[in-house]
Amino acid sequence: MDILLTGCSGFIGSHIRHRLENLGHNITCADRHHGVDFKRMTRPEDWLSLTRNQDAVINSVGIIVETGGNRFEILHHQAPAALFRAAGDCGVSRVIQISALGADENAFTPYQRTKKAADDVLRGLDLPGFILRPSLVIGRGSASLALFQRLAGLPLLMLADGGRQRIQPIHIDDLLDTVDKALSVECQGCRSLDLAGPQAMSFAQWLTILRQHQGKGPPRILPLPYSLVLGLSHLGRFILPLMHPDNLRMMQQGNTADTAPLEAFLGHPLRPAEDAL
């Protein structure tokens, strides 16, 4: 297939590109390294030269925090919405949107709400496609994983509420399998799939797993009040943008999903996330 892929240089996008190229697909990359400034691609006509003659379009652009000129509203909503409309105008036969778990009717942060806004645009178009909403994705090149690995290696872990937040990380290969199948399976209209791993766990349990892979013993945990950590995050985000208060709020809410629909779609058991370490 001829496939237009946005975000080729990002963590998820680069993995998608390598998988699909290895399967023999012809990938056209749309990112800053290939002369495409996503921030300026907010009208359907901006995309027409790229979407023309493509069999499929995959949007994997995403940011977890706003830095520099990168804004959620443009990168998550306006540019993807224009891309989807251009794909429809050009008769693209399949569109895949990499969204996020939590980008639903309960979305409460700009990150989630802007992802949902683009998802809603795709749902409203007469295009066969998939909206994939992954949890924390584990694989080589993940900035979030690198941060958690550094945190796990500390001699004392000071965690909000002792790390009781629920997460359900997914192996990168299960996400790639989902993208691969979403390109080929029969599809009428737009379908949404939540992507999460086979095991829900607390954040503290996840850090314990990371420590085990570092050859370290169980962590020493100092529980801190959530309100205190939230207050500190307003300062910490200037040192490390990933420490933004909204990210802490999303973690506190939990990031889990029913995986039965995903397993039925893939036709195989999900891989433990730690196998990607």
UniProtKB/TrEMBL annotation:
Highest taxon, organism lineage: Bacteria
UniProt-listed PANTHER family: NADH DEHYDROGENASE [UBIQUINONE] 1 ALPHA SUBCOMPLEX SUBUNIT 9, MITOCHONDRIAL (PTHR12126:SF11), NADH-UBIQUINONE OXIDOREDUCTASE 39 KDA SUBUNIT-RELATED (PTHR12126)
Gene3D superfamilies: NAD(P)-binding Rossmann-like Domain
Domain NAD-dependent epimerase/dehydratase, chain residue ranges per copy: 3-184
Listed GO MF terms: protein-containing complex binding
Protein name listed in UniProt: NAD-dependent epimerase/dehydratase family protein
One Pfam family from the record: Epimerase
Organism listed in the record: Thiolapillus brandeum
SUPFAM superfamilies the UniProt entry points to: NAD(P)-binding Rossmann-fold domains (SSF51735)
